[in-house]
Amino acid sequence: MPPDSSPFDPDLDKRQIQKQTRRALLLILGFILALMITFIGLLLFYDVPMPDDSSLSVTTQELQLPAVTSQAAKNPLADLVNALKAAKMERVEELPSRARTLEPGTEAEVRTFLATQGQAFAAFDTLLHSPQAGQWRWPELGTEPATRWTGESISSIQNIANLIRLRYRLELADGEWEKCLYSLTSLIQFGSALQRRPGTLIHLLVAGNAQRMGESGLEAALTLQTVPADRLAVLQQLLTGLEQDRTNYELSLRIEYAIFKEMIPLMVDAADLQAYHGTKLLEPFAPLLLKPGMSCTVRAQHDQATIATLHQGWKEGLLLQTTLANEFEAKTQSQIRRLLSANPVGDYHHLQYTGSAKSILGRQLTDIALHRQTVLQLALRRYELDHGQVPDQLTILVPQYLPEVPLDPFTDLPMTWLPATQVLYSIGEDFTDNGGTFTKPASRRGPDLAMHYWWSDAAAKWREEQRLESQRNSAGRKSTKKKSASSKPAPPQAATGP
User: pTM for the whole thing?
Assistant: First the structure.
């Protein structure tokens, strides 16, 4: 037979297999590439619809704006801010640290400084005695976009509160008891009134801080001399009506949400993205990595849940905010989870918000607990003046000295009184009862949120220890200053002729 003209090629099957393998690999790579393009597209361009946030809306009536906005609309708080600006009020922070705390030997310096602030004090008194207290409004709120806020009014209010605190400290040091008590009650009423005005959480924090400044000074003033029981009763009655209401805090959350929506376009910051991711690789895509729909959805869910829970009580609101903050932090802890997030810039801002909101609400409950303890201090002192001793139980104060025993906002149970050690305490933000243990009276840093009965030996000892420590610190700074001056090299002597 003739030889086969097309002999068998042993490499043919190999080439076909390789060709098919390459084709399969290309298909797989193409599929993976398509998935990656789709994923990147979703990562950069996909967003969810804006949420139903109607329950978080804020009305003009709630902002308490005048029916017809005009330059003539009266706003005493704006008048105060303008007056302080015109008076060129100096900041207390510009004083040396020794003078700010009125350490021994700085009285003359502080007296001279306060004498230059007459216009600021006059503007404050004018506001406090204004018959239009119900018309106080933070000047920037509702009258101009949040993007144009300067923080000038907040800074002014902080500084006038610091000035009043410095004034009452000097009045106390000078033995001007009546003036000191007037300054204290003025600051307390001022802060309380501000807390009842619509504002953001920062506005609320500044107002609460002003009230707390005043209340924290009452111990030194009321223990300086014997105050009659009837005078204490008047002061107690004044304080009883000055506690913050939950509805004001809920309104602040809704105002915060409205501002958040308005500010979203300005939140694109490559530095935030780098802080969140720990890398600069995605910085060019920062504008695409902030999704308004996703950001508003997670924020609305947080605020709506918080407001609903606050209807049950302060404690429940703080517990929920703590849970939400911890859950979101745990959810975003993984670096891989952060890199795969379609909304990393929004996640970063929400992480910051949940932490600060929890802290501010915790501060709010702390101020409420200390305010209630202050009221209890006055009731206990009135009882002691009438009976020659403090009661064994707080219930004994009801109804003659108190309508009811104030509750610990962290437990919704009556405030705890330890008659053996004469200590009032709340369990504080950690929600743990440490039996009234504390290292510093009225301190958030615990273990418990507690204070001595102001007229007890323990309280007097604490005040004396603080006075002596202040003297030692002052003497130490003077000594350091002298050593520093003596260690400076002497100036070179001029050459003298023959």
Answer: 0.85
pLDDT of residue 15: 72
Do residues 191 and 228 lie in contact, with contact meaning Cβ atoms separated by under 8 Å? no
Q: Are the CB atoms for 167 and 114 separated by under 8 Å?
A: yes
List the beta bridge partners of residue 418.
423
Residue 497: the pLDDT is 41
CA atoms within 13 A on the CB side of 446: 14
**Cα distance between residue 30 and residue 33, in whole Å:** 5
Q: Give the lowest-confidence range in 69-73, 123-127, 476-480.
A: 69-73
Distance CA 127, CA 113 (A): 22
**179 has a pLDDT exceeding 80:** yes
Look up residue 187 and give its amino acid.
Answer: L
| Spatial separation of the C-alpha atoms in residues 268 and 289, rounded to whole Å | 8
Instruction: State how far the alpha carbon of 175 is from the alpha carbons of 90, 147, 179, in Å.
Output: 25, 47, 9
Yes or no: say if 125 and 190 are a contact pair by the CB < 8 Å rule.
no
Long-range contacts, 471-476 (Cβ 8 Å, 24+): 471/103, 471/104, 473/103, 474/98, 474/103, 474/104, 474/105, 474/106
Provide the token pair at 255.
């105002």
How many C-beta atoms surround the C-beta of residue 207 within 10 A? 25
Single-letter residue type at 274: Q
For 206-267, the DSSP string reads HHHHHHHHHHHTHHHHHTTSPPPHHHHHHHHHHHHT-PPPHHHHHHHHHHHHHHHHHHGGG-
Cα 50 from Cα 292, distance rounded (Å): 7
Q: Inform me whether the pLDDT recorded for 365 exceeds 80.
A: yes
Which of 6-15, 57-66, 101-110 bottoms out in mean pLDDT, i.e. has the lowest? Answer: 6-15
In terms of C-beta density within 10 A (0-12 exposed, 13-18 middle, 19 or more buried), how is residue 423 classed? Answer: buried
C-alpha dist (Å) from residue 118 to 121, 164, 180, 214: 5, 11, 16, 20
Please tell me the distance from the alpha carbon of residue 96 to that of residue 102, in angstroms, as a whole number: 10
Q: Are 64 and 78 in contact (CB under 8 A)?
A: no
Share of the chain above pLDDT 70, in %: 84
Burial of 152 (0-12, 13-18, 19+ CB in 10 A): middle
C-alpha to C-alpha distance for 395 and 478, rounded to whole angstroms: 51
Q: Which two tokens stand for residue 380?
A: 């206990």
Using CA atoms, how far apart are residues 81 and 261, in angstroms rounded to an integer?
A: 27
